[in-house]
Each structure stands twice: as C-alpha cells, then as structure tokens.
C-alpha cells in the first residue's frame, strides 16, 4: 500500500519475485519491469499464434528477448564473481554464447532459462483460463482479456504439452546444450503443437 500498487499488480510482482518481499518491492519500483513483462506477454502471444515457417525467426527473437530483460532477470553476476574471486567479465564469458546468426550480442544461460520460465508462466495462465474460465487465478491478471483470446487456440492437453516442452527446454539449458539449439528446438516444438 505504501508504494501505491493495486492488488492485481502486487500479486503479479509477488509471483515474479517468488514471494521475496524485498525483490517484489524492487520490481514494483522499477519503471522497466512493466515494459519487460509486456514484452514477455507479447512474445508469448506471438508464439501462440505463429505459423510453422516462423519458428526459426521466433527462436532468434527469443534469444534477443533474453538478452534485453535485465530488469526481470537479475542474474546476480556481481555477487557470484565477488564470492568466487573471478572477475565479472569472466563470469559472463563462461555463461554466454553467441547467437547462431553471428550477432555480437551474447545471451547467458541464466537469462535464457529465466525467459523460458517467464514464458511458461504465461502459458500456465492460458491453461488455467482454458480450464477454469473467468474464475481462474492467474499471475498476469491485467492481461486477462488478451490471454483469454490466446487460450482458445489450444486444448487443455495441448497447453499441458506446451508446458512440458518448456520445462524440457529449461532442463536442456541447465544441461549445457547450445543456446541456439535449445531455442530452435523450443520454437519449432511450440509452434507445431
């Protein structure tokens, strides 16, 4: 109440911060966070409505998105580097790969894993709406109308399959599989549900 949030926003920031009050307050005070949440929801909508031929383009967009969500994906590189005695540059270099297109930007595994988890949150909201209708409790409440339109594209079984694919992609990131391979595989699988 002290920072002037509506209940809907407070619940969303609480979900994004996994119940950590300090993190939720930091997210609520950041002007970039709302823009980043909008990017995640918009990208998820694009993935849901995409055609098969768009999958590799979406894969590249996912890598770019992961590289640009600093406000939501605090990787903690500074803390890690100071604890292990390595430099911040070395920590980023070991946690990054170039995109397949040879772009100069680099995407870290933690960043990509975070984006996959955020997309999974949107897909989980779509599943909840598909199963429970307007009574569903979802994280992205302010985007409910947009998600209600998206959720009609798939059956509940297909939404569940999409979530399984997202979790599998998250594991692939942790298993040190190439970032480009993971995003290509994920985009192709999600677009062809």
Pick out its properties:
single chain, 193 residues, mainly alpha, 67% helix, 3% strand
Question: Largest sheet, described in full?
Answer: 2 strands, antiparallel
Percentage of β-strand residues? under 5%
Order of helices and strands: HHHHHHEEHHHH
Q: End-to-end distance, in Å?
A: 42 Å
Poorly predicted regions: 75-105
H/I helix tally:
10
The main sheet orders its strands as 1-2
Over all CA atoms, what is the radius of gyration?
Answer: 17 Å
Sum up the overall morphology in one term. globular
Helical content class: 55-70%
Mean pLDDT: 79
The tally of beta strands, per DSSP, is 2
Structural class: mainly alpha
Summarize the structure.
The chain is mainly alpha-helical and 193 residues long. It has helices at 7-16, 21-29, 31-49, 55-67, 77-84, 88-94, 109-132, 144-151, 156-174, 179-191; strands at residues 96-98, 106-108.
Give a description of the structure:
The chain has 193 residues and is mainly alpha-helical. It is 67% helix and 3% strand. The chain has ten helices and two strands, in the order ααααααββαααα. It has helices spanning 7-16, 21-29, 31-49, 55-67, 77-84, 88-94, 109-132, 144-151, 156-174, 179-191; strands at residues 96-98, 106-108. Strands 1-2 form a two-stranded antiparallel sheet. Strand 1 and strand 2 (106-108) form a beta hairpin. The N and C termini lie far apart (42 Å).
Helix-strand layout with pairing:
Elements: H1 7-16, H2 21-29, H3 31-49, H4 55-67, H5 77-84, H6 88-94, E1 96-98, E2 106-108, H7 109-132, H8 144-151, H9 156-174, H10 179-191
Antiparallel strand pairs: 1-2
Helix pairs in contact: 1-2, 3-4, 3-7, 4-7, 4-10, 5-6, 7-8, 7-9, 9-10
């Amino acid at each position: 109440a002290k920072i002037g949030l509506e209940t809907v926003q407070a619940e969303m920031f609480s979900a994004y911060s996994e119940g950590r009050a300090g993190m939720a307050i930091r997210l609520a005070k950041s002007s970039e966070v709302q823009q980043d949440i909008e990017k995640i929801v918009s990208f998820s909508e694009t993935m849901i409505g995409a055609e098969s031929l768009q999958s590799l383009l979406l894969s590249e967009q996912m890598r770019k998105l992961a590289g640009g969500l600093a406000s939501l994906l605090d990787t903690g590189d500074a803390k890690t580097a100071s604890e292990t005695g390595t430099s911040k540059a070395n920590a980023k270099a070991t946690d990054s790969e170039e995109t397949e297109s040879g772009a100069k930007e680099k995407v870290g595994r933690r960043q990509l894993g975070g984006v996959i988890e955020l997309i999974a949150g949107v897909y989980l909201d779509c599943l909840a709406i598909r199963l429970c209708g307007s009574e569903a409790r979802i994280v992205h409440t302010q985007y409910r109308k947009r998600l209600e339109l998206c959720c009609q594209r798939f059956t509940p079984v297909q939404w569940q399959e999409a979530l399984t694919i997202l979790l599998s992609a998250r594991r692939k990131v942790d298993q040190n599989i190439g970032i480009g391979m993971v995003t290509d595989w994920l985009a192709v699988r999600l677009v062809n549900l």
